[in-house]
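Subject: Sanity check before I submit

Could someone independently write out the structure tokens for this chain? I want to compare against mine line by line before I put it in a report. The sequence has 390 residues.
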Amino acid sequence: MSTAQTPQPDDTAGPPGAVGTPEHPERTVTQPNAPDATRSAGPAERPDPVPWRRRLLVGLVAGLLAWGLAALLSPEDGAARRLGAAALVAVAAVAVQHLVLVPDRAAEERARRAESLLAETADTVRGGLRRYDELRHGLTRHTEDMKQLVETRLVPPPRPAEPEPPASSLVRIGSVSDLAANFAEVLSPGLPILSTFVRLEMQRVIGHLSDLTTLTAECPGENHDWMLTLTRAAEKSICATSTSVDRTFWNSEPASRYLHAQAEAIEQGVPVRRLFLLESARELDDRLLRLCEEQEVLHIEVRVAVLPELPPHLLRGTTNDFIVYDEAVSFEIDQDLRDVNIRTRLIARQDHVHDRMKRFRELWEAGMSLRELEVRVDDEEDGTWMVDRG
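---
Independent answer below. Compare away.
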């Protein structure tokens, strides 16, 4: 009974590859290079004619009801008025259904874009995880290669019964930079300056490792890192001397870490002995006494020796600072004429270490214990001890 022209499904489908509706032409975007997107959507994007049939049926029923009501309420009206009222009600019913029930195409488009974005994000995350796995596996392989290289080139092979292995079996200085560059390539943080820093640090460390194949290594200045690492590595004993040159060292931050490492070594059963060597009896004061008492609290055995008061045969020999670890490695610090620490050396030659231990035992036996030091300091303060006065 309705005379309104009903829209056909073909009017709203739009051309293939277009997004939008005829009511919103500004949203129509032609994508000539993306035919797969429209094909993948398939018939789901084409309007279903069944809802339109249902709407028309509802409109027809509404028109018939309007026709019947008009005939009952106003029988005097003509057929034309009742027909117009019925048509108007039918068209209104169809229009209301179209406006209320039509799907929100903009919302559907936003949902599709959101799904596409989530899919791209998931692909990106999966790609990043794959690259991370590849980098981790590559780093593991490279680490194993470097470990094998270090074991085969830095560690001397076992000595055969006949001749000694040739010197060429040890690492060559020319290969140190290559090995450092390989490590830097694996451990590089990405920034050029940090990559260069890693390469230089690895070159320095590997250079020291190669030097130790000759049982000797050295570096400029005072190397606290070597001292701390050797303290943690010691398993049998630590025998150290301390001269007047490093007296200010005990008030520094590295000294705190050094004493803490020695306390941990003592807890592991490693005895620590320290011998303070004084150039004059004038250095026997309360400050030295407190320093010795603080170290004795940490269970460090302490003795003090005044060099001018030693027997003549003990005055011949080195008085530089040295620390012997496990009676196998000597850590030594050299000073210049201004008593400035200019060089740190590690020496593992057995003859040299033997001489250092012999020197330490002789000076240790000639030194004063803490109880003797307390009496001596009291005598110095009272003026009753006159040795080395003048």
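---
OP: Matches mine. For the report I'm noting this point. Residues 1-45, 165-173, 386-390 have pLDDT under 50 and may be disordered.
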